[in-house]
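If your schedule permits, I should be very grateful for your opinion on a structural question. What I wish to show you is a protein chain and, alongside it, a tokenised description of its three-dimensional fold. Would you kindly read the sequence against the tokens and tell me how you understand this chain to fold? Here, with my thanks, is the record as I have it:

===
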Amino acid sequence: CEALEAVALPASLTKIGDLAFLTTSLADGLNLAHLLELCELGTGFCDRSEVSKVVLPAALRIEKIPDQFLTTANNIVEIDLSCLLSAETIGDNLCYGARSLRRVTLPPSVTSIGDGAFQNAGLAELDLSGLWELKVIGARFCARCADLCAVDLPDSLRLLGSGAFGASSSRDVLATSSSASLTGSDDHDGRSDSAPSAAIPVA
């Protein structure tokens, strides 16, 4: 449905399945704020869509933000998931290849971020210092982010995946833990489901 530019969903909706808005244009954005009964989002929610904005219901209670949530959603400039206060896990390839992405806000409840979350994305900086529960960041986290200049990591971090900033232009990776150990480059350019994750401990 590449020509789909707008959709009106009923307030009674409780689940949105896998690849629900795959390759749609959704030029007017996707507003789900009225879906107060919504309790589940599928993998690849807006994978390869042209959506420019997604508004989630403030009452949404999910433990995991699904894999490939906004993969290669090239019109997304800003993502604010701070309302998802029950979310503990960010899935793999959250915004893989989202070239226009500049700002990200994640919920403070997050304890782990999956592989390739922002690989090939357009981020210039990323501040995760307020995620005091964050323990694990997966492989190729911000790999190949050509515009990435600064990353701020929380003191709670214990595992940072291999190639986390591989082939990116990051010049200022700040780990608030003084003994943090960051990984080197990783030439793998595929999505994270094509190779196993490896992690390096942060003491």
User: Anything to note?
Assistant: The two ends are 48 Å apart (CA to CA). Confidence is low (pLDDT under 50) at residues 175-190, 192-203. Residues 71 and 95 are 5 Å apart (CA to CA).
